[in-house]
Design a protein that fits this description.
Two copies of one chain form a homodimer. Chain A has two domains: 7-56 and 118-231, 2-Layer Sandwich (60s Ribosomal Protein L30, Chain: A); 59-117, Alpha-Beta Complex (CofE-like fold), CATH 3.90.1660. Chain A is 25% helix and 25% strand. The first copy, chain A, has helices at 23-31, 49-55, 67-76, 121-136, 190-202, 226-229, and strands at residues 6-10, 44-48, 59-62, 78-85, 88-93, 98-100, 112-115, 141-148, 157-164, 170-171, 187-188, 210-214.
Chain lengths: 240, 240
């Protein structure tokens, strides 16, 4: 059996994350167990926005059955409402993300609270990356993922809302295709593809808030930023 | 070292695919080599739309520098134009996909030709799945992938345009979350996530037209259909 080009490992045993927790310490502990894949230079650690936000204290008080309060919270987290249907709002967040309900999330959180998006998910990723390097002596990349709906396609999929140590978008322009000609315009959003791949392992209810992706292309390693590379400025966007 | 939850293997050595080729035979040969991961029951084979379309003869004559002819071809492949900018058209295809230039593709194809989308990618996936079962005696799933742009986010990502033997969308409603409560609405588009994961291994120019994803959740196994499960009917869509 050959080695796979890409291997994805669940990070088990992180447990519930609470405001003020040291997320790097929790992850390092979980990754240090005998049954763990560990962390190696070049790995990509994909971690859910939810545990990042919980550790950073990005919780708002909210009774889950209080629809009016939820709408108010969504409005406070949004700079613009693109569409509304029932109590669903498709909004633009302060970060520039377009998603349902500004990312305000009531699942896997105690009633009485909602989880918000991290204030600056690229910064969260950079900090976690630096903390893991300090603790474990490894140079890994970090992707902060969240679950977004999409226009035109049913179902949600995980995307990157922050990254560090890995390109968000890889520009293949100037790379020859298999026929030896130069490709016109192929900018691949590898950060979103890493987040989607990770979600295949995370599931939604199994308490796996992070995965290790081993085998990512070394040429993707660089500082990286979702804010700078993925968010499409409104002037360039055909759908805002 | 534990086994990864998910492993992705490139299918090497398929070579150029031509109209009339037996794609299952080409893939079975490539998967039969001593350095190959082979195919096992429960694997998901992700194969690019391009090689499926080439095998099915979905090529149109087109000089790559003939912009007017390209626009004509895109129009012929579309039922509706959503947006236009320069010679870029965001259109709805006959299948109901919303994508750039109706999927008309000039990369990795000889000048003088364009590759179109398969007529019925779910059917293509079903046929390939049945052919592989007949040849190799394995029960695998097949996802036909293509590279689409997205609203609001820069960069392209691979999505599923056809599938067989795997759910396109997994409905987690009714599944308890990690706090033991029932999730409200989480329909995860695992077919798109599988396609995105596969693209991390395929690259764009390395001649890898298929990958094997090993470790997909067995509960996702069923007939599956991108057309029925992913394409959002216009009446339900907030962005058409």
């Amino acid at each position: 059996m050959p080695e796979p080009q890409l291997a994805i490992f669940a990070v088990q045993g992180v447990g519930e994350v609470r405001p003020g927790d040291d997320l790097a310490a929790l992850l390092a502990d979980a990754l240090g167990g005998p049954d763990s894949c560990g962390l190696r230079d070049g790995d990509v650690l994909v971690v859910t926005s939810k545990v990042v936000a919980k550790a950073e204290g990005r919780l708002a008080e909210l009774r889950h059955d209080d629809v009016a309060a939820k709408l108010e919270l969504v409005a406070a987290e949004s700079t613009r409402v693109l569409r509304a249907r029932g109590d669903l709002r498709i909004t633009e967040t302060r970060h520039g993300f377009v998603c349902a309900n500004a990312g305000v999330d009531l699942s896997n959180v105690d009633d009485g609270y909602a989880v918000l998006l991290p204030v600056d998910p690229d910064r969260s990723a950079r900090r976690l990356r630096a903390d893991l390097r300090r603790r474990l002596g490894v140079d890994v990349a970090v992707v902060v993922s969240d679950t977004f709906g999409r226009a035109w396609r049913r179902g949600v999929a995980d995307v990157a809302i922050g990254c560090a140590g890995v390109a968000a978008v890889v520009d293949l322009r100037g790379t020859p295709d298999a026929m030896g000609r130069v490709l016109e315009a192929t900018e691949v959003c590898v950060a979103d593809e890493l987040a989607s791949a990770a979600d295949l392992v995370m599931g939604k209810a199994t308490g796996v808030p992070a995965v290790v992706v081993r085998g990512a292309d070394p040429s993707w390693r660089r500082e990286g930023s979702v804010a700078d590379e993925i968010i499409r400025p409104p002037g360039e966007d055909l759908f805002r």
